[in-house]
Design a protein that fits this description.
This protein is mainly alpha-helical and 420 residues long. The protein has 19 helices and no strands. The relative contact order is 0.06. It is globular and about 75 Å long.
């Protein structure tokens, strides 16, 4: 009996230590890669990735048996630094001057009281973000590489974000890394003249990162706030830099703040998605709403109207819970403008919900059915909701179709709940 108890305690300890590592990988791997790449050079990006992966593999092999270190992040940086030193010793192509510089600089990362979110790491991540978002790369490759390296996305997550497959994404990332190496892209912050050309890819990357957390399709969860918070952290880095503190960036951060303000009310204790009209507005984070309003005001100081301005304005109206015709008419008009600026089927689908609130369910059904998003579970769920009081049979058919095309258990649970 005692042996069984000891075994179970060890098993649960193993699970605890192992469960910690994926979260740290998401939050720290991009920082480690950015710092290593800064000193190894962009041509050694793959080496930096390999060292980061080996570092977390070492943690996976060590922590379950020896316990989590008192300062796990510092431990990771120490191991990464040592692996980088070993690599440099093996590589005779590096001059002694470069070796000495790398050793000297990397020493900063083993101090126990080092600020891991400090200016040095932030600068490295910004430089990495802009190095990856280089005009020599195809736009989708820039985004995919940034999601992979800086944000810790898996290949499947990137494939879902691009509505593609893993094989295609793997090939795209390999070609992108080769291109960066061949072009000898410098690991520096771009000049003021180059920033506008490359900022679009940076903002798109962070937008996709936030969306993957907010509408998670690759994990068994209705909300991955870890990804959302990482996107917001990187956005704050852009805003804090005078060169990238531009209206579009402020608009995107405003959008994130408005959405994040409703996180506590967006799912119940069973991790089931709660529809907007059923949310408890007392759970909404008013501080984040105020922060979003501040950044939306900052965004209004330019003369360019981006999709981020329009989506942030839509999200702002959703922070007003009163169910008035004025509110939904404003949201509807914003969606109309958004579809003109940049059409997307999801935006068109969301517009039909606003249309149902402003002009009635029958008008919304007519518009929704024109979209023919037959493989989208949210499309059939919306039709199921709209048809409930009009045609219960069609409502049931749409809920059944939604269940058949749902990707995750979390989606199926939410659809079943709303079909009741």
């Amino acid at each position: 009996m005692l042996n069984a108890l000891v075994f179970l305690q060890g098993h649960f300890s193993f699970m605890k230590e192992t469960a910690l590592i994926p979260g740290l990988f998401k939050s720290e791997s991009g920082k480690i890669i950015a710092v290593l790449t800064k000193y190894l050079g962009i041509e050694h990006l793959q080496v930096a990735e390999d060292i980061a992966s080996e570092t977390f593999l070492t943690a996976l092999e060590t922590w379950p048996y020896k316990g989590v270190p008192e300062l796990p992040v510092a431990w990771l940086y120490t191991v990464a630094k040592n692996k980088a030193k070993n690599y440099l010793h093996r590589e005779q192509t590096f001059s002694q001057k470069v070796v000495d510089e790398v050793k000297r600089t990397m020493e900063d990362y083993v101090e126990p009281d080092f600020d891991w979110s400090g200016e040095h790491i932030s600068d490295s991540q910004l430089q990495m973000l802009f190095a990856i978002c280089h005009p020599s790369l195809p736009f989708e490759s820039q985004i995919g590489l940034a999601l992979r390296i800086l944000c810790g996305f898996g290949i499947e997550e990137i494939a879902n974000a691009f509505l593609s497959n893993k094989e295609t994404i793997n090939k795209r990332l390999f070609r992108a890394k080769e291109k960066l190496r061949e072009e000898k892209v410098e690991f520096v912050f771009p000049s003021p003249a180059e920033i506008p050309k490359r900022l679009e890819a940076v903002l798109t990357t962070l937008y996709l990162l936030f969306n993957e957390g907010y509408y998670s399709e690759s994990h068994e969860s209705v909300l991955r706030d870890d990804l959302c918070l990482e996107a917001m952290r990187l956005m704050k880095m852009l805003i804090d830099n005078a060169s990238t503190n531009v209206p579009e960036a402020n608009a995107l951060l405003a959008l994130m703040c408005f959405h994040a303000s409703r996180f506590p009310a967006r799912k119940d204790s069973n991790a089931t998605l709660i529809l907007y009209e059923d949310q408890d507005e007392t759970l909404w984070n008013q501080e984040l709403i105020a922060r979003g309003a501040f950044h939306l005001h900052q965004a209004s100081q330019g003369n360019k109207l981006s999709k981020y301005h329009l989506e942030a304005s839509i999200a702002y109206w959703h922070t007003i819970k009163e169910d008035t015709h004025e509110k939904w008419e404003n949201i509807l008009q914003l969606y109309n403008k958004l579809l003109q600026v940049e059409y997307s089927p999801i935006a068109a689908l969301n517009r039909t919900y606003a249309l149902s609130k402003a002009n009635g369910k029958e008008a919304a059904i007519r518009e929704a059915e024109k979209l023919q998003l037959n493989d989208n579970p949210y499309y059939h769920t919306l039709l199921g909701v709209l048809y409930k009081d009009i045609d219960p049979k069609k409502s049931k058919e749409n809920f059944e179709r939604a269940l058949s095309v749902a990707r995750t258990d979390a989606d199926r649970k939410a659809i079943a709940f709303h079909a009741q």
